[in-house]
Specification:
Blueprint (H helix, E strand, L loop, with lengths): L7 E5 L4 H12 L3 E6 L3 H12 L5 E6 L5 H15 L4 E4 L14 H28 L6 E5 L14 H23 L5 E7 L6 H5 L4 H9 L6 H13 L8 E4 L7
Parallel strand pairs: 1-2, 1-4, 2-3, 4-5, 5-6, 6-7
Helix pairs in contact: 1-2, 1-8, 3-4, 4-5
Length: 255
């Protein structure tokens, strides 16, 4: 990880869960991390904790609604002005709504597409442009996907969400191919966790907290820190090594 010291990483959805754990880990390894979310109160608190802990990197909170392209573009412009550009892009932000295919609300579907697919694609495109205009040829784009992007969960509430995650699987491989065609050494990785104990289920099942809690009580789940460890592993691999799709489940998870 020494080669990433002092360089700039963007982590989307950095206020809680996996995003917060990844931001903390990268700051520990000396990176300058821009952590974005719709609300930055928790990121500001995390930044203060990182500073108090004496970590060698820094965490810069940035307020951004990823469902709004103009806000994403403004964020990249600000990063260019203040920090020259993005070297590592961690597309972590994602959400799920309980909107079945036969009865779901269109605005719920659209919100999942906007954040899980379009925001990821816009951030990826802008990160690539940032790398190219600075002639940086060793950047890294990491998409935090889901095992839901590799098999369909047998639950109507999850089907549209799984579709967006299948899109992330396809986008990651498509990006790998385009980067090869462009003859760059920029790497792209997809990390696909199974059940991770975060606030995700409580947001997903916001009208049924008991159902959300049951999601995490049935087995020993992954922790957000486990995914952060995977991100550090992927970034720390030798420059000629590309980890394409890293799938990780709790040992007790059935599928």
């Amino acid at each position: 990880m020494e080669r990433w010291t002092g360089r700039v990483a963007l982590v989307t959805g950095a206020s809680v869960g996996i995003g917060a754990a990844v931001a903390r880990a990268l700051v520990q390894h000396g990176m300058k991390v821009v952590g974005c979310a719709r609300s930055v109160d928790k990121i500001e608190k995390l930044a203060a904790e990182c500073q108090s802990a004496g970590y060698s990197g820094t965490l810069i909170p940035y307020k951004c609604d990823l469902s709004n392209e103009d806000e994403i573009l403004s964020m990249f412009s600000a990063i260019k002005t203040l920090h020259r550009g993005v070297d590592v892009c961690i597309n972590n932000a994602g959400l799920a709504h309980a909107e079945p295919l036969l009865s779901g609300r269109t605005d719920g579907w659209r919100n999942m597409l906007d954040v899980n697919v379009l925001a990821l694609s816009i951030c990826t495109r802008e990160a690539y442009r940032s790398l190219k205009e600075r002639n940086v040829d060793d950047g890294h784009i990491i998409n935090i996907n889901s095992m839901g992007g590799h098999r369909i969960v047998p639950s109507a509430d999850e089907h549209f969400y799984c579709a967006t995650k299948y899109a992330v699987t396809a986008l990651t491989e498509g990006l790998r191919q385009e980067l090869r065609e462009a003859k760059t050494h920029i790497r792209v990785t997809c990390i696909s966790p199974g059940i991770v104990e975060t606030e995700f289920a409580f947001r997903h099942h916001n009208s049924d907290p008991e159902k959300a809690a049951a999601t995490y009580e049935s087995i020993k789940c992954l922790k957000a820190e486990d995914i952060a460890t995977a991100v550090v592993y992927v970034l720390g691999a030798p420059p000629h090594v590309q980890v394409g799709d890293l799938q990780m489940r709790p040992v007790e998870q059935v599928s």
